[in-house]
Amino acid sequence: GLVVAGAAARRRMGREALVPAAWTRDSRVLLSTLGGALQMFANGLVQVAVPAWLLLEVSGSIAFAGLALMAMTVTMTLMAPFVGRRVGAGYPLWFLRGCIGCGAGLLALAIAVGPGPWALSLPALIVVGVGAGCLLTPSFHEFSGTVAGREGVGLALYNMGRLVAFAAGGLFGAVTLAAGWGHASFLVTGLAFAGAAFRFRRRPSLLQ
What we know:
The protein is mainly alpha-helical. It has helices spanning 2-13, 21-24, 27-58, 62-86, 91-113, 121-144, 152-178, 182-202. The protein is 81% helix and 0% strand.
């Protein structure tokens, strides 16, 4: 579907580039897109792998698995007004907070899914929700303020990237859980978030 849509768009636009080169050199575009994609990857991973793990290996109850997952969703919802009022404080700070929160929560989930105890998954989901909440609105707000974000095609590509990241996270979680390595998916993703935060903290101009 993506190949067909891309080919159709390319044919309709003729020689005009779908993504102007200036967008790919804009550090605000790159960082906000990365933040949005990371947040959605974590969402996809958690929303697929955590309920499946709770259902298959902990309780066997669909209701319990769904309610447990709400720990992350409700946290993100409650954070929305707080983050929205302070979103102008500067995106790099929100990016760091989001990476640290998601990284810490995902590493805690790796422990819960691995050696346990499973109850650690509930506070871990809250921490992931805090991290995701720090990335969700600020990433979109930052991208919307760029040249790319003021173009319809720019917003469309931004959202397409986020949704592809969500699907990739869910697929990654499903495959590793089916292979008996569910804890590894949270461990790898948590370390990736921690690494992104550490590297960006040391070199804020990394994407410039």
